Give the backbone structure.
Amino acid sequence: MVRRTKEDAQKTRSQILEAAEQAFHQRGMSRTTLAEIASIAGVTRGAIYWHFSNKADLVQAMLDSLHEPLDELSKASQNEDEVDPLGFLRLLLIKLFEQLVLDTKIRRIRETLIYKCEFTDAMCDLRQQRQSAYLDINGRIELSLSNAVQRGQLPADLNIPRAVISLHGYIDGIVAQWLLVPDSFALAQEAAALVDAALDMLRLSPALRR
């Protein structure tokens, strides 16, 4: 009976997250109310508050689902014992681009976050969460690049803080461009070449040296 209750609770939580994803994508985050999400999900507002403390908490749970498929690759590139950290980072970024094209859920969430997310006073918690997530990603990139330097895959005099900013900005820029005009280039087919261009920047750019 307890197991059944847990399964029901997880099913309700999934319904709420799916409804939130649809509503945020259609109306934007600030214009979407919890009542609208409850209506789409077929639950009460009380059910939403049972699983999530507020809208920002709900949004964060939705965003957390983006990391799950790539976690293992991410951990591999950050592992100081990994013999090919740059290779794993390359594969991670290629898969990130490919999933954006192939997975409609991931694409909708990314598009919502970039183009339909307004950091209003009511969403100040979300702004802080996104700032924290940005710094966390930078920390992960820094660790991956540091491991690649230690393994001789990147120059020993690489300016790692500057390289982190450059790589993060490059990836975010490509994602934002493609989401705005998907027909402008074939992201899945170009994924490997685009990632290799970024890695060439790290290897060869004089501006990224100490």
Remarks:
- The chain has a mean pLDDT of 86.
- The two ends are 62 Å apart (CA to CA).
